[in-house]
């Protein structure tokens, strides 16, 4: 039975929900430069902030307002949180966020959703209900009346940029996968299948040059290039197998770099490295004998952690070629 991660998100306390969202924002690296949690008193209506640029609050930023409630977020609750951000922005503490998202694991009520799905009505409701719903809930001990300056601030904002996320939508977001692995031990799944490109790729130049030299050394005559080695009846098949391993490992790395915390892939690579390094450092008849011995040892590597069942033999062997490609090991 597939785990229900939405239910696990329900069980988080307020602080943990904020930390979870901060981790999630941190994995949206194509959108955010960095993130920050504003917790407790003095947050001025901000919970988790995703900074779109290095300018932080002086540039574009998004606010994720976390509401870990026993029930759905209500219409008054939603308006009061919005009022805080408009008031403190109007006081000059920061510009308005580019986007404002309510993170309410148990969702929002129908009246609240009716406003979210009608942005112009949301703007109107915030102004109409300000004095009766919001004014006493913005700053402790202060009644904040809606004045012309505040009304101008509200009118300047595009309310189509206000949204909500419940636990189900949050758990299914692509950027949540590494967070679910880290927080709840989720299975990241297997990498999608792929193939080895027929043409030599720039990304494989370093290790391939070393392998071609090793095959040339063994046969007693250097190859003109990798293409010539691939066409050789004696060693072409073996070189094709090595390229397959390299690209199997490349797909493995790309997938788990995106879908697990960064230390997971690093731990896998450490396991492979420390399992083969003694074999690599041993005396060998020639460079190809070293390659063959390391490939044999890599096939026996025992991998720990969540990647254990997905680190197939070609992946472990191909990881050694990536070590050679990156200068960690050398096939010379």
Automatic annotation (TrEMBL):
Spell out the Pfam families in the cross-references. Answer: CTD6 (PF20282)
Q: Which InterPro entries does the protein's record reference?
A: ABC-3C_CTD6
Give residue ranges for domain ABC-three component systems C-terminal: 204-331
Name recorded for this polypeptide: ABC-three component systems C-terminal domain-containing protein
Q: Which organism is it from?
A: Flavisphingopyxis soli
């Amino acid at each position: 039975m597939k785990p229900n991660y939405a239910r696990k998100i329900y069980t988080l306390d307020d602080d943990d929900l904020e930390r979870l969202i901060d981790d999630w924002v941190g994995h949206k690296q194509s959108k955010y430069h960095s993130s920050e949690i504003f917790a407790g008193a003095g947050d001025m209506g901000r919970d988790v902030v995703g900074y779109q640029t290095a300018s932080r609050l002086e540039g574009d930023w998004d606010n994720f307002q976390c509401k870990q409630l026993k029930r759905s977020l209500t219409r008054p609750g939603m308006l009061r949180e919005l009022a805080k951000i408009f008031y403190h922005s109007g006081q000059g503490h920061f510009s308005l966020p580019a986007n404002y998202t309510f993170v309410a694991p148990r969702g929002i009520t129908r009246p609240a959703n009716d406003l979210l799905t009608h942005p112009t009505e949301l703007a109107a409701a915030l102004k109409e209900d300000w004095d009766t719903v919001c004014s006493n809930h913005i700053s402790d001990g202060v009644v904040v009346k809606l004045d012309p300056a505040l009304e101008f601030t509200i009118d300047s904002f595009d309310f189509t940029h206000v949204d909500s996320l419940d636990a189900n939508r949050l758990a299914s977001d692509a950027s949540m996968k590494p967070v679910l692995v880290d927080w709840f031990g989720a299975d990241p799944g297997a990498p999608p299948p792929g193939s080895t490109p027929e043409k030599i790729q720039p990304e494989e130049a370093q290790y391939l040059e070393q392998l071609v030299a090793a095959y040339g050394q063994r046969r007693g005559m250097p190859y003109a290039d990798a293409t010539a080695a691939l066409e050789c009846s004696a060693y072409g098949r073996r070189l094709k197998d090595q390229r397959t391993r390299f690209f199997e490992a490349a797909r493995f790395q790309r997938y788990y770099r995106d879908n697990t915390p960064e230390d997971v892939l690093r731990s896998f690579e450490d396991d492979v490295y420390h399992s083969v390094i003694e074999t690599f450092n041993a005396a060998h008849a020639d460079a190809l004998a070293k390659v063959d011995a390391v490939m044999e040892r890599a096939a026996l590597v025992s991998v720990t952690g969540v990647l254990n069942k997905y680190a197939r033999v070609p992946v472990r062997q191909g990881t050694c070629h990536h070590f050679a490609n990156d200068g960690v090991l050398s096939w010379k």
